[in-house]
Design goal:
CATH class: Mainly Beta
Strand content: over 45%
CATH topology: Porin
CATH architecture: Beta Barrel
Low-confidence stretches: 1-18, 160-175, 273-279
Distance between the termini: 78 Å
């Protein structure tokens, strides 16, 4: 009977982990400060200025400012440094951030002086980040979280899982992912054990209990990119109102390897696996080492639209506005999960068990997501022929994100989680430029992006629901950019150099805190801080 239930659980595995959750769609929706070097050196505060290839990703109304054609390429070196606790990881990456062409068509008309079109490639996001860390003296275990998920699952009865010959963990009660990864694990010899176990009273027991001590270790290795290909069209009316339309095609490629391990003393483990379900659970002179590994590779293509305007009421003042539709993605995931457990009694290894999804082969699934709506307002002052001061504000409606099946039908439970977990984030950008000579310019900028999550998430007032086999989730609190640069113009040729310092404060959670009628158990979490530096170079020609 036991083996029959185990096989049934494995059959349910691809069905239970075939979609992303609220924090995954947040991850895929992020953008960062990239583009031409001039754009980056002024912290992206170009919403009311235009005249730069990067405006195709921001305020396409800026394409109407062009009087001449423009061709340019931007390359950069990223020096990434990420620290979690006391552990620091560094890596260096080369990127092509922007390639673009703007074609200006001059018309013999005062009412419509020109119509312009443009094409560009822009790297909107680099997912490259690697961090490791540990938490000593943990107060609970991920196994307790998994057990709690069983106990609190509406309509779920452990008796059905144990004894029901026709029980299907997907269609009959929606047993959580832990039923697959953590319940029945084949040992190296015979029998089955698990990191969660059922006592005689059908109570789900984790490895951690009174008298248990231990430590946790984690590693997160992320890599990939989100690129946008833009096709834009725009113009101006009487050199007063500039407008633009942009069609964006997105290409997303994201990969993550996530490891989580615990080493526990006086752990509550099964001491006899010959008759697993009736064996006593004890913690005297016992130990447990166990871990969970999740691999995920996500590829997606999407489309979006942008509309923008710049109004120039006087020579010195410019006002801009733009809005972006969500990017509507078709996504495909490839994923693999494995877990292991080693049990000890009096320091002697008594069992060694593991399990991998589909015997170590990866599964795939398809779904759809839509990213947040974005709205931008900008104002800029042009000081004679030498100075520019620009201010941008962007509103990101994170609560409007959606995820659904491969036919576009939204998942209502994930939609509810998105609304509960996330709030709008606000981005403020300030940039300045000073023309020292007719050929040389100096630039500087600063931007800040506020938190994306509701206060209850940050204060651990929620039980966070994740889909699939990875209970970990992460989010940003604040993101700062401090920028500077220099530009040189000679006839039709130009080159710009930018320096960007990024400070990103994030929170990593190995699993959700456990908040129920029995009280609060803190989870395993860590503050993660990125201190990244980028040097970028743009080469271009206007003609």
């Amino acid at each position: 009977m036991k083996k029959k239930v185990f096989a049934l659980l494995l059959c349910g595995l691809p069905l239970m982990i075939n979609a992303q959750d609220a924090f995954d769609v947040l991850q895929m929706s992020q953008t960062e400060l990239r583009g031409t070097s001039r754009f980056q050196s002024m912290a992206g505060a170009f919403g009311a200025l235009g005249g730069d290839i990067s405006v195709l990703t921001q305020n396409p109304g800026g394409i109407g400012v062009y009087r001449n054609s423009d061709l340019g390429i931007t390359m950069g070196l990223d020096f990434n440094s990420t620290k979690a606790g006391v552990d620091k990881m560094s890596q260096t990456k080369f990127n092509v951030n922007n390639v673009g062409y703007i074609g200006a068509i001059r018309l013999d008309s005062e009412a419509v002086p020109n119509l312009n079109f443009g094409f560009s490639f822009n790297r909107l996001q680099s997912y490259n980040r690697h961090y490791v860390g540990g938490v000593g003296n943990i107060q609970t275990s991920m196994s307790n979280f998994i057990a709690d998920e069983f106990v609190n699952m509406p309509g779920f009865n452990p008796d059905e899982l144990l004894y029901g010959e026709d029980y299907n963990p997907y269609f009959d009660g929606y047993a959580p992912w832990a039923a697959v990864t953590a319940f029945d694990m084949p040992t190296k010899t015979n029998g089955y054990v698990g990191i969660i176990n059922v006592r005689d009273d059908d109570y789900m027991q984790g490895l951690y209990g009174p008298g248990t001590t231990g430590a946790a270790y984690y590693e997160v290795d992320e890599r990939g990119h989100a690129d946008e290909y833009n096709i834009a069209f725009g113009g101006n009316f009487a050199n007063k109102l500039y407008w633009g339309l942009d069609f964006g095609i997105m290409d997303l490629d994201y990969t993550s390897d996530q490891y989580y391990d615990e080493e526990l003393d006086n752990a509550y483990i099964m001491l006899d696996d010959e008759d697993l379900y009736y064996s006593p659970i004890d913690n005297e002179n016992t130990g447990a080492d166990w871990g969970l590994y999740n691999y995920l590779h996500t590829k997606g293509t999407g489309v979006n639209f942008k509309l923008g305007f710049i109004w120039r009421p006087t020579q010195a003042l410019r006002i801009g506005a733009a809005f972006h539709t969500p990017t509507y993605y078709d996504m495909r995931d490839t994923y693999l999960v494995s877990t292991y457990l080693k049990g000890y009694e009096h320091n002697n290894l008594i069992y060694n068990a593991d399990k991998s999804s589909n015997d170590g082969y990866a599964y795939s699934s398809s779904y759809t997501i839509s990213t947040p709506w974005r709205f931008m307002g900008s104002v800029a002052g042009v000081i004679g022929t030498q100075g520019i001061l620009s201010l941008d504000y962007e509103y990101v409606a994170n609560e409007t994100m959606r995820i659904g099946d491969d036919r576009g039908n939204n998942y209502p439970d994930v939609t509810d989680n998105v609304k509960a977990y996330f709030k709008p984030s606000h981005i403020v950008r300030l940039g300045a430029e000073y023309r020292v000579t007719p050929n040389w310019s100096l630039r500087a900028g600063y931007s800040i992006k506020t938190s994306q999550v509701e206060k209850g998430v940050d204060k651990y007032d929620y039980n966070i629901s994740t889909v699939g086999t990875n209970p970990a989730y992460q989010y940003d609190n604040t993101v700062h950019h401090i920028t500077g640069g220099v530009g040189y113009r000679y006839k039709s040729f130009y080159t710009d150099l930018a320096y960007v310092h990024k400070i990103r404060n994030s929170v990593y959670n190995a699993f959700s805190p456990i908040n129920d009628q029995y009280g609060y158990e803190p989870n395993v979490s860590a503050d993660v801080k990125d201190n990244n530096n980028r040097i970028s170079l743009t080469l271009g020609v206007r003609f």
